[in-house]
Amino acid sequence: MCKITDVALSFKQLFAMSAWSSIPRVVAGALAIVVMTMNPENFNLQNPLAFNLGHYMEPPPNSGKFVYSVATSIDLFTIWSILLLAIGIAAAARKVSFSKAIMLVAVPWILWVVVASGFGSMFS
To answer: Predicted confidence band at 102 (pLDDT cuts at 50, 70, 90)?
Structure first.
């Protein structure tokens, strides 16, 4: 039983949903390898693909570390993973609407990004 939503979702179900929703990360890793082999001298390990907002910003000496970190977290593959996880939760738990499932997934992710970006900008 998932205590957050008060619906019967087992650990196996939630684990399977999170595993399947991480497949876009595998696609992003494969694309990063392709980009790295095509143009290794201009490859940036911190920002390998042009699918996030941070790619279009100046690096941290020229922009704020916090803003740059948040911008690099807003990624096409991350949004894809969040949507897949929300679809899985909404499908498995019939009582939960898709909009509530999006909130259940996106709010902890947003909190994580803000806290991690804040600590990263303070201690680096």
So the answer is: very high
Domain with 108, as residue range(s), is 11-123
Residue-wise pLDDT for 77-94, tens only, equals: 999 999 999 999 889 888
Does residue 3 fall inside a structural domain? no
Dihedral of the alpha carbons of 34, 39, 45, 51, in degrees to the nearest 10: -60
109 neighbors 82 (Cβ within 8 angstroms):
yes
Instruction: Answer whether residue 4 is part of any domain.
Output: no
Give how far the C-alpha of residue 21 lies from the chain's centroid of Cα atoms, to the nearest Å.
Answer: 10
Read off the pTM: 0.84
- Angstrom CA distances, 64 to 35, 54, 85, 118, stand at 27, 11, 31, 11
Interacting residues of 99 by C-beta distance below 8 A, sequence separation 6+: none
CA atoms within 13 A on the CB side of 110: 6
